[in-house]
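Our collaborator T.R. sent over the components below with a one-line note: 'Predict the complex.' Nothing else. No constraints on interfaces, no templates requested, no preferences about which chain binds where. So this is a plain run: every listed entity goes in together, and whatever single assembly comes back becomes the starting point for the next discussion.
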Amino acid sequence: MALIVDIEKTLGDFHLKVNFTAEREVMALLGVSGCGKSMTLGCIAGIVRPDKGHIELNGRVLFDSEKKIDLPPQKRKVGYLFQQYALFPHMTVEQNIRAGAHARPKAEREQAVREVLHAFRLEGLENNRPSQLSGGQQQRCAMARILVGQPELVLLDEPFSALDAYLKWQVELELSDILKNLSCGTLFVTHNRDEVYRLCDTVCVLNRGKSDPKETVKELFRAPATMGAALISGCKNVSAAEVKQGETLFCKDWNVTLKTALHVPENIAYVGVRAHYFTTEGTENAIPCTVERVVENPFSTVVMLQTTGAGRLRWELDKAVWETLSGTEKLTLYVRPEDVMPLTE
Amino acid sequence: MDWYPLYNSLRIALISTVIIFFAGIAAAYYVARLPRVLKGVLDVLFTLPLVLPPTVVGYLLLRVLGPKRAVGAWALTHFNLKLTMVWWSAIFATTVVIFPLMYRTARGAFESFDETLADAGRTLGRSNTWIFWRVRMPCCKQGILAGTVLAFARALGEYGATSMVAGYTPGRTATISTTVYQLWRTNDDALAFKWVVVNLAISAVVLLAVNLLEKRERGVRKAWH
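Returned assembly:
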């Protein structure tokens, strides 16, 4: 399976320009709210029409502005799990699933409905209305309704946003199992980097409507390419930077020179360091700073430090480790060269 | 007591309501999808009969349907059909007058419909016709039913346009409302009062139905969200 997306759309002063390809994998579209993630899904499903571009799924052209191809959603074979699941409120669980089984040949339908009811543990709930289901059951019902129609691609739009925090974990574990057994590719839209890390294989970061090149999830967290990717992957410390020579970078906001072990791109503009990666002992990359503020989390401590430049650093460490240091005002932090991430715009 | 006016009123109201049920829903559905300017123009046009005096509606209808006017003359020469001063002339009058009621309630119901449900139906491969009858209409059922009952109630009480287009001929075009006026004019106070009571009873039942429907709708909405 292969999904090719290369589309543009303008809506008011918002410009969407998304470009990626995906194989049979669970791919995340990661970005803050309002960055165009849902609009991208809408374009792929056929609910939203891009201004121009090309969308292809398994060799079938779904949309092409030049060839004037725009398949209706009904013919795209793309399943869409909506944020609030969009179950038909006046139908029972079974009727909802039947509504999705229409794409199957008549002889298979009954069997297929039985199968998904079983696979998604909805037996016994067949005659319930969506309003009588828990959030997790609603999501299972919506997934069953999509998968009974055998789509070639499944789109998940923030699948946990409609759930209470205490329900979320259980539902995420369930969805993780579902995704593992899926025979088609999946696009997973979220603003939550932890979900991406736990559930997805690859990730494409969307930043104000523009997509970064696709990378593996491990790569995003080890060495994000752009500042947007670094911030959305949870990097708390970013400074404007320029190359001093070779792998040595001058960080303007922190007034220090740091050495990196990662590849330095030509158009480097920033440097990022994750809040967990500072140490108090080391040989390279010393950063002199002053403790400014200490914030206690339930299981960790966040220390805000003033550098000799204008910028501040955020350091997150184990409570017990901080206790051995408490009272100190002047500190020298170290960071390993492989944790210094050169970033482009 | 001659019950013809009751029978005539009921059949006129029923037929008009059936026509307006489909016309009003279709108008509401398609107008919502039009570009803004056209939508505004049609919205004014479709709502106009609600604010116009019924006599003005009657006058306009006579100008179109009268035996010497465009449509009236055409029907007369081609089908030998009189469009005015017969019992079903009242259907033209009533239909125009109650159309805005159906159109506006149906539009309100459609506007509160969650469009992602329609999108979900489309991505599941279902046709727009299926989505309309199996998802959109059931979800908007209570609002549309309330609009229908309201339109029926108004149709039953239609007087102004009807009296101009259909006139008053006992046993032919007489409706409850025109009968009451005629009886009062001819000083038959006792019989006029009987018809007033009949009218009050029907109207009360219909309004009760509207209230019940609206209450149920609110209950259903609550359960969904």
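Summary for T.R.: The domain at 4-224 of chain B is CATH 1.10.3720.10 (MetI-like fold).
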